[in-house]
Write the structure tokens for this entry.
Amino acid sequence: MARKIGISMPCCYILLVNLISVYSLVDQGMYRRNSYESATGSTGSFPFLMPLVSPKTPDLYLCTPIKVDPTTTYYIVGFNPNATMNTAHHMLLYGCGEPGTTKSTWNCGEMAQATAEEKASPCGPRSHSQILYAWARDAQKVSLPAGVGFKVGKDSPTKYLVLQVHYAHVDRFKDGSTDDSGVFLDYTEKPLQKLAGTLLLGTDGIIPAMKTEHMESACEITENKVLFPFAYRVHTHEMGKVVAGYRVRSNSEGIQEWVQLGKRDPLTPQMFYNVTNTEPILSGDQLAMRCTIKNTRHRITKIGPTNEDEMCNFYLMYYVDHGETLDMKYCFSQGPPNYYWSNPDTGLHNIPHIEASTL
Ligand code: IYT
Ligand code: CU
Ligand code: CU
């Protein structure tokens, strides 16, 4: 597959730093032909690509790791995909404390937890884990807002990056062809004040047979930080109809105002999209999300990892100006039949109506 951008000649200093990270990968039995490359020594574009794989089973989710040079703090400021929808169904980039395995590639499908030992999640068990980037359907390059970056490496819990590629159809690999789908990571070593973070809202729960269920969660922001939301991503499996996220704030009359952050049909490509409202989120606000899931099966469906299960996720990408991102990384509720926004103990009022079209 043709690369979209050329690679500049690596500078000697960066190369030295690279050797450290390449050696530490070799120590762990991993091999990477990639390395940080840069013209100036402080910014560059790192090709994070599949190491010429030839997947043979349809619907394979393959993961490949890189260890970030632990002696340097990097800020990822943009993502330039090297993939086409003919080959890759979707790609996700994870920031991890530990990778799921020490192999150079492994099977990391959502069903990973459910089946054989040959599989593992993108990030290690109990490891720090967050999604930094998502690609589907020939999506174009994305840049974070000016001056904003994801901090990785030395001064960050993100010690590894893991690329997941979903190969839906594998006919084109029958003849032994290989693939290097992935993403060029635009990065800088110049310290940035504005740090990007993701917060994941989701639910557990059960959807009764032949019923449309509303899966809801909400959390108060209690940390004294100002969050500037800029992108969101939704995720469900095949029965998802709508996913919406809101910022809830009481006005001077004590009435809760629900401002929509994003709302999407989850069966459209599950990438990050611009939020519909970029006003800051403050301490004392609540963040809330709702998935409408229509169970057309004659049996109950639970939240779980396989296609026989459902999921309900709303990822919010935000930045903070000065200081660190939220300690709170997740906002999960028990979901139905136990948790609804309308429960008396949630403190939520003035709840948005459910549209008739999704009932
Ligand atoms: C049970 C559930 O909702 N799983 C989601 C969310 C999730 C993402 C990450 C949970 C954890 C994580 O570390 I990152 I714990 C889930 O698996 N979502 C899928 C991916 O498999 C991550 C998605 O595409 O959003
Ligand atoms: Cu996919
Ligand atoms: Cu899922």
About this structure: The longest strand covers residues 240-250. The domain at 199-333 is CATH 2.60.120.230 (Jelly Rolls). Residues 110, 235, 237, 311 surround copper (II) ion (ligand 3) (CB under 6 Å).
